[in-house]
Structure formats: structure tokens, C-alpha cells
Automatic annotation (TrEMBL):
This is rRNA methyltransferase 2, mitochondrial. InterPro entries: RNA_methyltr_RlmE, RNA_MeTrfase_FtsJ_dom, rRNA-MeTfrase_E, SAM-dependent_MTases_sf. It comes from Cynara cardunculus var. scolymus (Globe artichoke). One of its GO terms (molecular function) is rRNA (uridine-2'-O-)-methyltransferase activity. The active site is at K191.
Amino acid sequence: MSGGGTADFFYREAQRLGYVARSAFKLLQIQKQYKLITPGSSVLDLGCAPGAWLQVACQSLGPLKNGGVVVGIDLKKSNLTSSLYQEQKVKVPSSHCDSRVSTVCADVMNLPKDEVRKLSPQKKGFTVLLSDMCPLVSGITTRDAALSMELGMRALDLALGGDRSSDEPLDVEQQEDDVGVLQSGGHLIVKLLESEDTKELMKICKPVFRKSSWLRPKATRSNSREIYLICQDLH
């Protein structure tokens, strides 16, 4: 484990409290400030590996009797032999999770919206969409930012639906897949690597959510450009 004292603190705290990653504290802070996940919420977690946000999301639902559901999606590959790779679901952490948490192994970038919607209760969509997705960082700032933006736009596309600016008529199949999976009144959290382009995402979100704001959680490493877009109450 490398990094400064603050990073070491969150790493140690995650181990002490049974979280599978220090990133749990980022969502814990977001929950403390915004209270987006409430009892009965249906939560979709994009890029859920290794499962820390699944843990916090489930905790935020309250006791099992309160209901709610947490669905995580990630593309996880397990190296079985030197020449064979097999896709496997992210394991649901044993601590801080219960029967309301499940995971799906899939590529978020290619997963149709109607397939995602089928994962929600009564197939009516989710009330909270979390995206902690991050590209494999190359160290090339502009490239990493562009890849992060692509993931962020995909999360937004899943939440809201396709291109709203186009006047072109859609066929029936396109219309079905153009409907976003986030319910009216729902909330969206998207992680991005900060750049000039991230402002574009805010421009898209401001008119369609009651409130949109930026947050850099305290658990973020000092040398990281990570920033979170918090969107509340979809119109």
C-alpha cells in the first residue's frame, strides 16, 4: 500500500470495518451529504467490482424488512490458465450485504437498455444509478480523460435514454431501447476524471435534474483527478 497518511487511513479503516475497498468511504460521504439511497430504493451499480459500493448501497437500504434491491454490473475476467479466460460475476461481499444484492457479468458499453431494465423490480427501472466506472489508466492525461468521459456518457445514456436532441423518428425497436432505466425522481452518480470535457456532462444534466453538483470525496487520493457528478431528482 502506497500513498500518503490520509490514503493509509481509509485503507486501514476499510479493513477494520469489513469493506472490500477504500472506495466505500466515497459513497458513504455521498450518502451522508445527499441521502440518495433510502429504504426501498432500487439501486443499479455500474462497474461494481470489487463490491465496496454494493456494501454501502445495501447498508443504506436499512434492515431487510425495508425492502429494496441492489444490482451490480461489471465485466470481470478470471485468468484460469495462461491461454484461457472466463468471464465471472463479481462475488457479492459476505459482509454488509444480504439477499437483496446480486451481480451480473456483462459489458456495460454493449448492454441494451431493455436488458438492464429487466434487472429492476417489476422491470420498471431503478431509483438510483451509480457509476464508479473508471478506464484502465495509461498515464496519458488526455487519453484517460477521454476514456473516462466515454464511460460517463454511457452511464448517462443508460439513465436517461438516447440522443434527445435528434428530431429523427425512431422505429419501434429503437424506441424501446431509447428509454432510460432511471425512474422519474431518481438520482444519478457518475465518476469522471476531471477535464474540460466533463463540463459538457453537467450541461446535459442540469436541465433534466432538479439539482446537479460536483463532489470530490475526502477518500479520493491526493494525486487523483477523480470527481463525482451528483444529480438529484430526475424531472
